[in-house]
Each structure stands twice: as C-alpha cells, then as structure tokens.
UniProtKB/TrEMBL annotation:
InterPro entries: DEAD/DEAH_box_helicase_dom (IPR011545), DEAD_box_RNA_helicase (IPR050079), Helicase_ATP-bd (IPR014001), Helicase_C-like (IPR001650), P-loop_NTPase (IPR027417), RNA-helicase_DEAD-box_CS (IPR000629), RNA_helicase_DEAD_Q_motif (IPR014014). It is found in: Nucleus. Residues 403-445 are annotated as: Disordered. This is RNA helicase. Residues 242-382 form the Helicase C-terminal domain. Residues 403-418 have a biased composition (Basic and acidic residues). Keywords: ATP-binding, Helicase, Hydrolase, Nucleotide-binding, Nucleus, Ribosome biogenesis, RNA-binding, rRNA processing. The keyword RNA-binding applies. GO terms for molecular function: ATP binding; hydrolase activity; RNA binding; RNA helicase activity. A motif (Q motif) lies at residues 2-30. It comes from the Eukaryota.
Length: 445
C-alpha cells in the first residue's frame, strides 16, 4: 500500500496529516493526487466519507507551498455547512505553515468577507451565491482572483444544475482563463453533466470509484415503506419514532421544503422528542448550532432538507426517514447513504402517499431493489398513542409559525433579487389605495 510520500506530497504535509492520524491514502486520494501534482485537470468521483477533501486539498497545498503568491485557489461548494467543514479541514492541514483562508458564505457580514478578500487570502472556500454577490457589488476587492491557480467544484453534480448556473457564471467571469488554472471537480456521483466536461479538454482525467450506474445500496441497509395518507403523516412519524425498534435510535428525517422541516421539528419538540433541524430559512448561527447538537448527541433526531443529504460529516445514523420522497432517485441514494455505513446495519423507511407511486417506482428501478412494507405502525397504535397529541402539537406549531411570519425572510430575499434583476415584484398584498380604486371601478360598471 502506498503512502502520502509515495504520491509525491512534501514531507511537511505528510507530517501534518500524520499528526491528525491520517497515515494511509484512500483510493480516491491515491488515484488523483499524483495526476493533480502533474498539472492535470481532474474529475474525481467517490462516495461521501472516502476522503475527497484531502484528495484536492493536499496537492493544492503542496503546490502553494512552492510559490505562495496571493489568492492561490477557490473552492466552491453548494451549501454553507459543507463550506465550513472544508474550511476547518484546510485550517487543520495548514496549521503549521501560516495558511490564510477566507470563508465566504451567506448569513454572515458581507462587508467583513469583502474586506478579507482584499487581503488576498491563500485559499477561498465559498458558496457560489455569496461569492457572486461580492464580485458584483465589490469588484475592486476581488481583483486577486484573476491570478489564482486552482478552482475546485466540490459536489460538482449539484453545482452543475440550473439553480447554480447564474452564480457560477459570475464567479468564473472573475477567474483566470481555463488554460491559466487547474480545474478540479469532485463529486459522489459523476453525472453526464460532469462527465461531458472531459470532452472539452484533453488535459482532463477522470478517476471514478463508484460509477453512477453501478451504485449499490449496502446489503445491511434495510429499505422499507409505509403507505401514508396525507392527513395522518405527522402521527405516523411520531408513532414510528416512539416504537421500541427506534425510540433510542439516532434518526435523520428528510423533507423537501424548509416550511415542512420547521413544522416537523416544532411538532416533535412539543411531543418531547430531542430534535433539531437544518434548512435554508434558519440563520447561519442556528444551522451551525443545530449540527453541533446532533453530532454531540444532544438531539437524537435531525429533520433536514437536502442540505444534509450529502457531504457533511455526520456521525452514525441508525434510521433514515424519507418523510417526503425526493424528485431525483439519486437524492434518495444520498439520503439513505447516511445510515448502514462502514459495514454497520441501518434502516431507511419511506412514507409513500398516493402521489408518490411514480417516484418510488423510479427509485426502485434506479437502485435495483424493491422495498418491503413496514407493518409495525398499526391503525390501533396510531389512534391510541399518536393521533390526538400530534394533531394538537401541529395546531400549536402552525400558530407559532404564523405569529413569527415564518418564510418572510425568504420572500424579502426573493424580492431583493428580483429588484436587482429589474423584474416587477408581485407581493400578493393589496393596499388600501388599490382597494379603493377597485371599489370605484366596480361601482362604475
């Protein structure tokens, strides 16, 4: 088996890795680090937890140490939590060599972040939206980007979707031409969009451990479903979490929308379940605190949108619940991949409403496995233990969210964005003046 020294990394970096008990390279690291050091562009595909961050960070740091000049590299990633995690790893790997990093994400002071870019940090770890905003609003602060040597897209399959296209375009307009930098793309699933980038350059190699068409759900992961009427969804969830099978388990519950995430968290909290949440409507400090609580075991249940579906360093999870079925079968694979890791057993239970049948068939076709019905949540148990209390908790949670104007922040951000793009804003609110004009118009008719 090779060592990091065999891969061509300098001694100081090998010693730093050894100091944090990382002594042997993983397959993705062995397959990519030597080629990146030779100056090649890279597409690396391997599942979460395989060491992808070191696979791109180590060769970049090795090259940086040879010639530390201004902003050396930018790492773009789809979520704030992933950006923070990568920044921590860069901090640990560069702790002995005075490495300066800048974390550029939403939810924190843009002025402070813009100022930090003026000082030309060695590496920038950013979400595309915030970096694009700074490039547009403070172009003089990011002139150093034009001289950088590396750009990394982490979770590249997510970044290369329509929702990031505009922001990525703005970011890349501030970067050097592709011939003057190395481009590294890392992802858990090498999609066609990612793979097609190889055709645009001869200097790109692909190292893929888990081909998207060969994804295997671990044998020790038990896949089940519960046929779920809409009106009792929350009661079924409560009943499941309080069953003997799972009442002490570490659980991740995945939903499709932030509003659902917040509602479920509040309902479960009201029902005395140690729960926390992760969604885009939460302030950054709360999101960070929420992950810390779950990692530390202070909460045994994490309700999450697909923010928590991949990449994050989350401890052993014994049960994954798909409260909402994802639209994309690959998102299902990422979600259930949170359990049954490293040879351990795990359960993944999906709530299937009448509208979800096509999605479930697509998922079963994609993974090549059929789900079994989970039959321990019975009608009698539901009525006896969960229905009444869950309904009361839901009413209280809804009232609280309405009182706090949940979702208002997102609406304001959307309106700001539309104004920036010179698009008319429809708020849905009718002013007294408009009402008066409308009334007069009606009278005339």
């Amino acid at each position: 088996m090779s060592t990091f020294k065999d891969l061509g990394l300098p001694r100081w970096l090998c010693d730093t890795l050894s100091g944090v008990k990382i002594t042997r390279p993983t397959n993705i690291q062995s397959g990519t680090i030597p080629e990146i050091l030779k100056g090649k562009n890279c597409i690396g595909g391997a599942k979460t937890g395989s060491g992808k961050t070191i696979a791109f960070a180590a060769p970049m740091l090795a090259k940086w140490a040879e010639d530390p000049c201004g902003i050396f590299g930018v790492i773009l990633t789809p979520t704030r939590e992933l950006a923070m995690q990568i920044a921590e790893q860069f901090g640990a790997m560069g702790s002995n060599v005075n490495l300066k990093t800048a974390l550029i994400i939403g939810g924190q002071s843009m002025i402070e972040q813009s100022n930090s870019l003026k000082n030309n940090p060695d590496f920038i770890i950013a979400t595309p939206g915030r970096l694009a905003h700074i490039i547009q609003e403070h172009p003089d602060d990011v002139k150093g980007l034009k001289r950088m040597k590396f750009v990394v897209l982490d979770e590249a399959d997510r970044l290369l979707t329509d929702s990031f296209t505009e922001h990525l375009g703005i970011c890349f307009s501030a970067f050097p031409d592709s011939k003057k930098r190395q481009s590294l793309l890392f992802t858990a699933t090498v999609t066609d969009a990612v793979r097609s980038l190889k055709d645009k350059s001869d200097n790109v190699f692909i190292h893929e451990l888990d081909k998207i068409d060969d994804v295997v759900i671990p044998e020790k992961l038990k896949l089940s479903y519960i046929l779920t009427p809409f009106l009792v969804k929350e009661a079924i969830l409560h009943n499941l979490l309080t069953k003997d099978d799972f009442k002490e388990s570490t659980v991740m519950i995945f939903v499709n929308r932030s509003e659902t995430c917040e509602l479920i968290k509040r309902i479960l909290k009201e029902l005395d379940i140690r729960v926390t949440a992760l969604h885009s409507e939460m302030p950054q400090s709360e999101r960070t605190n929420s992950l810390h609580r779950f990692r530390a075991g202070a909460a045994r249940v994490l309700v999450s949108t697909d923010l928590g579906g991949r990449g994050l360093d989350i401890p052993s999870v014994e049960l994954v619940v798909n409260y909402d079925i994802p639209r994309d079968p690959d998102d299902f694979i990422h979600r259930v991949g949170r359990t049954a890791r490293a040879g351990r057993k795990g359960d993944a239970i999906s709530f299937v409403t009448p509208n979800d049948l096509d999605r479930i068939l697509a998922i079963e076709d994609r993974i090549g496995r059929k789900m079994d019905e989970y039959e321990k949540v019975t009608d009698n148990a539901l009525i006896k233990d969960s229905l009444k209390s869950t309904l009361a908790a839901k009413v209280d949670a809804r009232m609280e969210m309405d009182k706090e104007n949940f979702g208002e922040r997102k609406q304001k951000l959307r309106e700001k964005q539309l104004l920036r793009n010179n698009t008319p804003v429809k708020t849905g609110k009718v002013t007294k003046e408009k009402k008066s004009k409308k009334a007069k118009s009606t009278k005339k008719q």
